[in-house]
Each structure stands twice: as structure tokens, then as C-alpha cells.
Amino acid sequence: MKTRIFVTLKNGVLDPQGKAIHHAIEGLGFSGVHDVRAGRLIEIEHEPGVSKADLETMCTKLLANMVIENFEIEQA
Amino acid sequence: MRAAVIQFPGSNCDRDMAVAIRDITGAETTLVWHRAGELPDGLDLIAIPGGFSYGDYLRSGAMAARSPVMQAVVKAAERGVPVLGVCNGFQILTEAGLLPGALMRNAGISFVCRTVGLTVENNQSAFTKGYSTGEQVQIPVAHHDGNYFADSETLDRLEGEGRIAFRYAENVNGSARNIAGVLNAGGNVLGMMPHPERMTEAVHGGSDGRRLFEGLLRQIA
Questions:
Q1: Do residues B144 and A16 make contact, with C-beta atoms less than 8 angstroms apart?
Q2: Measured by CB atoms within 10 angstroms of the end CB, which terminus of chain A is less buried, N or C?
Q3: How many domains does chain A have?
């Protein structure tokens, strides 16, 4: 079984990498892009017995830094 | 005096830190590998050195903060043992929950490697006794993720409780309120991005970092 975890910066937390990517997109000649924020995708292959609660604990204890990041758990 | 310097895979300032502690304080200094389940007995100082532990995978300091030795470091910090985290060590201490906030990518994206001016904000801690409050000192930085972030409530609390040890004299990396080093509530844990161990003798171009270790020695001895 596969679960995808999306880790993103909280609203209001400055994202220097997103800003740099935004500049690079504009440098390629694309216009009309308002903002870019970069995050992280983590794919976890696991037994069906690994619960949503376990996955949430993995996120809060390690995969996301709750001071600056949020996470979303997407199960197939 | 007895000191330990923790080594993680990817630490690269561990030996510099051990030499600074040993030469300046005379402490019996042990290098402790991150897989150690416990620390040597009777420590007066634990240092978490700079470097790129675990290649900065996931987030700077994230993996190191979960390694076995850190549980012993957290317990020692709770008992009041002074813990100094420099650069990656500061990142590890925030990731381990011993210090508030987080260290994000520098606002300007670039790796910053140069000597910067720091203002000593509080000389009452074990780590800052060798300085005067308001004094400006010169200490080098070398980091990619030194942009200190905490919510404004936390920042106000840190200011109110005198827990900002050092501030940059200029905007170096986008840090909230130019914070370069913070203390825990007990005052026995300091995290700072600048490297005092790299500024301890004339041949380094200055010795402002030396006084941090001299102050510690006076406090502990």
C-alpha cells in the first residue's frame, strides 16, 4: 500500500526557494505567474496495518517541522 | 571540567570545537558518536558542532535530532547541563525541541560565508559572561539555512525573557529580528549560527569567540 505525504510551508512563512523558482520561471519567458511555493512529496510504501494515526505521528515527529510546515496525507 | 562534543555523520566542525574547548578551558573533552545511548558521566558542557549532519536530508538537523544520543542530550539539558549548539548544532537543537523556532533557507538563497558583526544582547547566561551587554563582536558565519523563524508571539516572549543572546549587526540571512543566537528558558542551552570556535586566536583573524569559552570556564570552574 502506498501513501503520499505532502509537506508544505505554512501560510505567512517566507519561501526563499519558491521565490527563486518564480524568478526562474519568469526568466524562461512565462508571464502571468503570481506566486510559487515549494514543498516536499514523500511516498511511503507500507503494510495496510499501518494506520492513519501512525502516519500522522510520523509527520509530526519527523517528516514535517510543525513550527513552519503543514502536511497532508493522501492514501490511494 | 569535562566536556563532550557530539559527532554525527556529516559533522565537520567537531574537531575544531573540541580543540577550542580543550585549549581554552582545559576541559577533558570527549568526542561522542551519535549512536551512543548515553553520555560520559559528570559532563559540565555538551557541544553540538557545525556541519551537514546526514547531508541536511529532509531538513537541516532533522535526522540528527532523532538520533539515539540526542535523547541523552535532552535529559542532560533538562538537568541543567550547559549545551552549546553552533550552526548545524543550532539547527539540531531547534529540531530536537530544546530551543524554539526553526532555521530556514537564507532569505537571499545564497550560502553566506564571512565574518559578521554580532551584538551581545544578554551577558547573563553561562555562555555570554565573557562579554558586555550591547558590545559588538566579530564572529564568522558559514551557512545556507540560518534564517531564524518563530511566530511573533514566540519572538516577543524571547525578547521579554532576555533569551536572545546575540543579534546580527546587519541583515545576514533574513532572520527574524536579526536573531543570531537564542537561549532556552533555563538559560543553559544556547544555539547560535556564528562559529565562536573559528575565532579563538590571532591567526584566525580575531579572538572574539574565545571569550565565550572563557566565560563558560569561569561559570563552571
A1: no
A2: C
A3: 1
B147 vs A: CB within 8 A: yes
Segments forming the whole domain that contains residue A68: 2-75
What separation in angstroms does the CA of A71 have from each of A4, A22, B66, B170, B186? 10, 22, 19, 34, 32
Name the CATH architecture for the domain at B2-220: 3-Layer(aba) Sandwich (3.40)
How confident is the model over A20-32, as pLDDT tens digits?
Answer: 999 999 999 999 9
Cell of A17: 526557494
Nearest by CB to B104, from A61, A63, A68: name it: A68
Tens digits of residue pLDDT in B37-93: 899 999 999 999 999 999 999 999 999 999 999 999 999 999 999 999 999 999 999
Which of B105, B158, B177 would best serve as a mutation to test chain A binding (most A beta carbons within 10 A)?
A: B105
Catalytic residues of B: 87, 195, 197
